[in-house]
Amino acid sequence: MGFTQGADLNLHEPGAVRALLDVALARGWQPGERRLVEVDGWTLLEAAAAARAGERRP
User: Fold this and answer.
1) How remote is the C-alpha of 8 from its chain's centroid?
2) What is the 3-state secondary structure (H, E, C) of the chain?
3) Segment 36-56 mean pLDDT
């Protein structure tokens, strides 16, 4: 998934979904809470893609 120009994230790559979850957690998502929460994944894309790019650098 990605923008026409800019960040993208291949959800088939190992760690891509983990990066999205890590960003959501950093922004306050608490999976242990027992309530409905909607999170727009597009708002997490750039930070998750940047985190993945940092992992791939030597």
Assistant:
1) 10
2) CECCCCCECCCCCCCHHHHHHHHHHHCCCCCCCCCCCCCCHHHCHHHHHHHHHHHHCC
3) 84
